[in-house]
Structures are given as structure tokens and as C-alpha cells.
Structure prediction request, 475 residues.
Amino acid sequence: MNAQKTFENIKKLLKKHNQSHLLAFWGQLNAAQRQNLLAQIRQLDFLKIDNWVADFVKKPTSAEIGADFAPAQSYGPDPADTEQKSKYGKAVELGRELIRQSKVAALVVAGGQATRLEFEGPKGNFPISPVKNKTLFQIFAESIAAASEKYQTVCPWYIMTSPLNHAVTCEIFRSNDYYGLREKDVFIFQQGTLPNFSFDGKILLADKANIASSPDGHGGSLKALYKSGALKDMKRRGVKFISYFQVDNPLVNIFDPLFIGLHVLDGAEMSSKALIKAGPEEKVGNFCLVDGKVTVIEYSDFPDELAEKRNPDGSLVFELGSIAIHIINTSFVEKLNVRGASLPLHRAVKKILHIDEKGEHVEPAEPNSIKLESFVFDALPLASKSIILQTLRSQEFAPTKNLTGVDSIETARQMMVARAADWLESAGVTVPGKPDGSVDATLEIAPGFALEKDDVKAKLKQIPEIKPKDKLYLA
Prediction:
């Protein structure tokens, strides 16, 4: 088919789907720009886009909650009785053995920029640790290296970026010599994108030759693992289980034998960690059972009367909050992709740079456009079995989302210091405290020194006396 015929066909297609404006500046483009724009248009699935415009763009959406709806059940952070204590013991041994056998890989979703932290570049490159100012990427790399050393194995690391930060992330890892990991054990891949829309359903142009698009959300990780070859690499290595986490949590326990073991013992395909919500309005997803399936309903979609509902003892009925930590079977990811299963989309109103009908750049002061994205937790109801393990906020969840206030740089560092103090005190070390109960020292425990609380006991001779106001780094 000649170039003119191709152009005419695309022109007809765009007219049919009310997107003719994408060629508005065709006469001003050179040959290379024209080819690039046509390639972008050809990648669009207009039948799906028509549905998206009707279902998400032109009207606000809210999650439909099924009739068979209840709080989700979970394993507690500690065993509830003798029988469960025995099961936890078996789970820990099984989890350790699977890590030793290189059956577990780490996956971090790291497609975001640190804009809200007023930092230029990928969020993974944000310096967060309290003494050494290590970046999030470095903390995770050291944790993976420490796990590989502890279990005498190789724990591969898969890092999902986005078109926003892929090139710079690759360069960060190269310039830091992969933080001591072998390059061949670090697999960096990109997630997909979805077009951005005006409120009337028109696809926006970033400039005269490029469609405006945004990363397709952390749910895009399941498709990107398959398309990028990352899943194929996992299968080649014999990896059966993926430890999934997000880039903004420096306290994450990447290789948790208990979590891995319970997931496998119960024959689950995708499982989750949860914590008890701080209150009914905490901005985390809510774990529920919908039609018998573990489901996460976003806080923004969760009815207030359900969020505030309490048990006779005063605890929240829907008390389990999602913290974006999962174990996912590689076979489950493959199955979803082979079957062509797609996750539902979620609508967000955002400030998006674009050009107007005159070709002039628009820098919005207020949210002006619709971004669509998928969430990884929406795969949970598709799993044949899914378990939830409660964890303690103080041990595993310090999201670094904001510059100040809740879930901020300051709170994350405070929690890193507090966890270090807790680990030291559990081993019998005296840690100075302030009258308000906070730690009167700045403490940082490197993953190579201790990956979990029990590791500290073997290192007591390496720990000096800690005095008020001390800065102590243990490596």
C-alpha cells in the first residue's frame, strides 16, 4: 500500500472515531515527523478508545460494589494459635528454601518522577536514608544483595520504568555500577502508555507531531513484564514468584520468607500484604471480599458509611489497608497475557501539557484533562486464590509521597530511625530517647548489617554505645 493510500485510510479512521484533529498540523510536518505521527496513530485501538471516552472520559465513574460484599480475611502478623504457629514455621522454612533456590525475583515499579518531592528525576533516585542519604534505588539494591548473600543465591531484580524516566534510570544504574549488583541480574524495562483526553473526549496532542500520553499505571506492569521479555527472562532463570513493591517505600521487606511461604502453602496466584488502617479516611485501598474474591476498593471509591462502620469493640469493620506489596506467580502473569485479560481503567483529572487547536502550548494552572490508568490490585479478583498477610506499619511501610506532612520525606526518615531503634532494643541495645518517646539519635542500619530484626543479635559486638544526639550508621 503506497504512502498516500495509507494516509487516506488513517484520515477516514480518525474521522469515523471523531479524532480528525490529530492530523490538524500535517501540512507543517516534515517526512520523519509524519511517519512518527502515523506510527503513533496506528498503535491506537480506536474501538477501545470509543468505549473509554464513553465510560470514563465524559462521565465520572465510581466502583460498583457487588451484592456479596464483606471484609476480607487475613493472616495476622503473629500466629493466632498453636496450629497457626506451626503453619507459620513451615511457611518460613518453605519461603527460605524458595529464595535459596532462586525461585523469587524482586519487581519494583518505578515509573514516576519525584515532582511532589520537589526533586528533579526519577523518584528512585531520591536520597532518603537518615545518615548516609542513600537513594531509594541504593537501599533496594543493598537489600537484594544482602538477601543474595544471606541465602547464598542470586536474587534478580526487575525494574519497571516509564517513557518519562527510562533513559535517565538506565543511566543512573550504569553510573552507579548497578550498586554492586551484576548488570545481568538487573533487568530494566518500560511500561506502556495511554493517550490523554480533553473533557470532550478528544485525544490531546503534546505537540504538532506527537500524541500526549501518560504511563498506563502500575497495573501496566503485568502487561509490560510479558511484552518486554522480562517474564521470559524470569522463566529462563526458573523464577516462579515475583515480589512486587513500589519505589517510594524504603522500609519494604523485599524477600519475606513468611509471606512467600504462606502464599505457596495456600496455593495462591497473587497475594497481598496489608496493615490496619490508621482511621476510616486513610488514603489506602480497602481490602474486601466481593463475590467471594479478594478485591481492593480505592479509598476515593469507598462509601463513607462503609469506611466508618465499626465492630462492637470499636475496631473498623473494613480495617485492612492495601500497601502495594504483593507476591505474584509468574504463571499467573503469563496466563493473563495469553488470555488477553485486561485490567479495568481508572479515571484521573490532571494538569496535562498539550497544544490547542492553534498549535499553541497550553500550561494549565488547573486540572484540565483526563488521564487513564490501571492498578495492579485489580488483578486480585482474577486469581484463583489470594491470601492477605497483615504486617506492622512501623516495620514495613514508610511511603515517601509528599514534601511535608503525612507520608512525607520527614515521616519516612523518622520511621527508618524508629525501626532501627526497635531492632537494636530488641537485641538488648540501649537507645537514648526523648521525653515524647521518640529516638534521641539518628540511626541507620544498612541492609548488609541486618535484613530483619533477628539479624541484629549476631552483630552485638559491632554496635558501640549510643549516646544522645549521636549519628550512628551500622554496616
